[in-house]
Amino acid sequence: MNLMVVDDHEIVRDGLAMLLQQSFCIDSKKFASDGYEAIKLAEDFAADLILLDVSMPGGLDGLSTIEKLKKILPESKIVIFSMFDDIGYQKKAYDCGADGYLIKQLKKEELIESLDLILANKKVFTNQVLEEESASDSFYQLDLPISKREKEVFVLTVMGYSQKDIADKLNITVKTVENHRQKIGEKLETQKRFEWVGIAKRYNVF
């Protein structure tokens, strides 16, 4: 197996590679400190597994890097390996084409087991195995007094997406997004975004 580790901390890159070599047969490995370096490496190195952090220097974060890497290496398994256990990042990673999202706080056995599943064509997000046909819906299991479309707008708003980004993702107009937000605010009895975040937490969105 060819391995690529993308992280701006050398100790993380070396330590992770050493740990994986104890459990997987790694033929070759490459390291990158940021997204741009990873993309350049991918042009000449067919990695079977790519592990990368969410937050990296250079202006290209892990989520944006995933999309570019998938175009170069569509068959590679690309996994976010981050300290942030955040449903928002996980949803964005899934939307960008990630095969998994694992946190650095995992025990060695949990990490290896999760990677085994990912290499076996499963999608694993913080220990949850997602079935392909229902993976996207699993991020929207909200018992809120709003419609399905409003739930989608609500989740994306809480995650920090702009009105234009939401419109693009849902294939609707910005005006429609504004109308949905207005109706959501009326049903939740607040238009304040920070209160929406609190509501999302109570309903286990995060």
UniProtKB/TrEMBL annotation:
The keyword Transcription regulation applies. One of its GO terms (biological process) is phosphorelay signal transduction system. Residues 139-204 form the HTH luxR-type domain. Signal peptide: none annotated. It is found in: Cytoplasm. Gene3D superfamilies: 3.40.50.2300. One of its GO terms (molecular function) is DNA binding. Coiled coil: none annotated. Residues 2-119 form the Response regulatory domain. The modification 4-aspartylphosphate is found at residue 53. InterPro entries: CheY-like_superfamily (IPR011006), NreC/VraR/RcsB-like_REC (IPR058245), Sig_transdc_resp-reg_C-effctor (IPR016032), Sig_transdc_resp-reg_receiver (IPR001789), Tscrpt_reg_LuxR_C (IPR000792), WalR-like (IPR039420). It holds the Pfam family GerE. GO terms for cellular component: cytoplasm. Its main location: cytoplasm. PROSITE patterns: HTH_LUXR_2, RESPONSE_REGULATORY. The keyword Nuclease does not apply. Keywords: DNA-binding, Phosphoprotein, Transcription, Transcription regulation. PANTHER family: TWO-COMPONENT RESPONSE REGULATOR (PTHR43214). This is Two component transcriptional regulator, LuxR family. It comes from Mesobacillus persicus. The lineage of its organism: Bacteria, Bacillati, Bacillota, Bacilli, Bacillales.
